[in-house]
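Problem statement: downstream parser choked on a complex file, so we are re-checking the raw output for the guanine run. The parser issue turned out to be on our end (a line-ending mismatch), but while we're here, posting the original submission so the record is complete.
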Amino acid sequence: MSATILDGKKLAESVRAEVRTGVDVFVKEHGRPPGLEVVLVGENPASQIYTRNKEKAAKEVGIRGKLHVLADDTTETELLALLGRLNADPAVDGILVQLPLPKQIREQRVLDAIDPAKDVDGFHPVNAGLLASGRPSLVPCTPRGSMKLIALAGGSLDGARAVVVGRSNIVGKPMAQLLLAANATVTMAHSRTTDLASVCREADVLVVAVGKAELVRGDWIKPGAVVIDVGMNRIDMPGAIPGDTLKTKLVGDVAFEEAKERASAITPVPGGVGPMTIACLLENTLLAARARMTPKRGH
Ligand code: GUN
């Protein structure tokens, strides 16, 4: 039987509609929209597209979105100075620095410099630590969106076997934390895992985020599993001349056509996790804005 296709585009649209309503209420209460500042350093073509999409999506739901495009040779000091200004600006609720950064800039220094209250990517060690302690505040967008897709598939995570392939700070680690918090039994697998296929075959829920085109084959999938494919790999179409951009296609980390014959539900690439990441960024921006405007209770 063929799997249910988890439509991330449609689910993202409903998340965005909820954010739009929340933004309208926020504007009435506070006399200003939530503000999101997106920072792009350099000319990575994929990052250029992602950041433009983030700014555009923010504006579409009534968030004041601003994209800062900095030159490829920007120094770490210059970037930190910009972040200092954005941290201090009361009209800024969310700050996102697109990764990867040019090699002269230390990623950790930059992520550490963002005010945790404005860290809508959830990459600051304070937010990563809160998530690991079971006290999530701002949760990374891709894992957050992936959990919503798993919920869309239905079924309970309680006691389920979940396998996360990939151990990045952006996806794999926070994803495992969220699954654990939902009472799944979680295995983290990665490039050094021996017999990855067998580990994957144990998964009732399989999340793959490694960036290797069609690594996970159909026979790695437990029949009836829910499969979340975070990969976005551009590959040449059969017969294409290498470098001919018209003859490329986007594929995930899972061999979709094979996997959909075994899974009960699966995300497509494109149109699965990708749209959810941006929708959850908008949600995080609204959450950050609300939290910043709510006076903290005393201890
Ligand atoms: N690069 C790839 N994914 C992401 C993301 O979710 N946030 C940021 N800031 N950079 C990324």
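For whoever reads this later: The radius of gyration is 20 Å.
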